[in-house]
Amino acid sequence: QVQLLESGGGLVQAGGSLRLSCAASGRTFGTYAMGWFRQAPGKERELVARIVWSSGGTYYADSGKGRFTISRDTAKNTGYLQMNSLKPEDTAVYYCAAGSGPLTINQYRDQSKYDYWGQGTQVTVSS
User: Are 53 and 33 in contact (CB under 8 A)?
Assistant: First the structure.
């Protein structure tokens, strides 16, 4: 089992920045990749970005391109999502998720391919 704990969410004005953290504990050696997803009110949960744990290779969905940066610290078993130039439409609950195996690009957004999920952290961007 892997436990994921997100932190770093909060209320920020438009144009501001936040850095989300996702601390992994438990049987983390089985983690192949970590993804950040978000769910806005009334919308489906969507992929923001994904990182391969060992290589650091990254993938960004359209929602995360340009303003967000995903990273990880393997020594701390922690993943990060740096969010800059935040907009009101970025308001959502942000979740980190861990997957235990490689995926094709077409599978990155498939939430069923991720084995473990955090409880989520609220990000609210005011205009």
Answer: yes
Do residues 98 and 34 make contact, with C-beta atoms less than 8 angstroms apart? yes
Q: Which residue has the higher pLDDT, 103 or 12?
A: 12
Of residues 106, 97, 86, the one with CA closest to residue 38? 97
What is the chain's mean pLDDT, rounded?
Answer: 95
Q: How far apart are CA 45 and CA 56, in angstroms?
A: 24
| Half-sphere exposure (Cβ direction) of 65: Cα atoms closer than 13 Å | 4
- Tell me how many degrees the CA angle 45-51-54 measures, rounded to the nearest 5: 145
Give the span between the Cα atoms of 101 and 118, in whole angstroms. 18
User: Strand (E) positions, the chain?
Assistant: 2-7, 10-13, 18-26, 33-39, 46-52, 58-60, 68-73, 78-83, 92-99, 116-117, 121-126
Which comes out higher in pLDDT, residue 114 or 29? 114
93 contacts 122 by C-beta, under 8 angstroms: yes
Residue 3 and residue 25 in contact, taking contact as beta carbons nearer than 8 Å: yes
